[in-house]
Design a protein that fits this description.
Distance between the termini: 43 Å
Shape: elongated
Radius of gyration: 13 Å
Organism: Pseudobutyrivibrio ruminis
Protein name: DUF2292 domain-containing protein
Largest sheet: 2 strands, antiparallel
Structural class: alpha+beta
Length: 47
């Protein structure tokens, strides 16, 4: 992986935070030109 395509520690921390904060759902990472440009979290609440 080239230096300009490395995932920053801030990005990894945000991804981990999203994963840790949901019980049911998904985390989607949007990449453009080899860089993370967006991180989405979708959470399902079971009733």
């Amino acid at each position: 992986m080239a230096d300009n395509k490395k995932v920053s520690s801030e990005e990894l921390a945000k991804i981990k935070e999203f994963i840790d904060s949901i019980k049911f759902g998904s985390v989607n990472i949007i990449i453009q030109d080899g860089k993370i440009v967006q991180i989405d979290k979708s959470e399902k609440i079971r009733i």
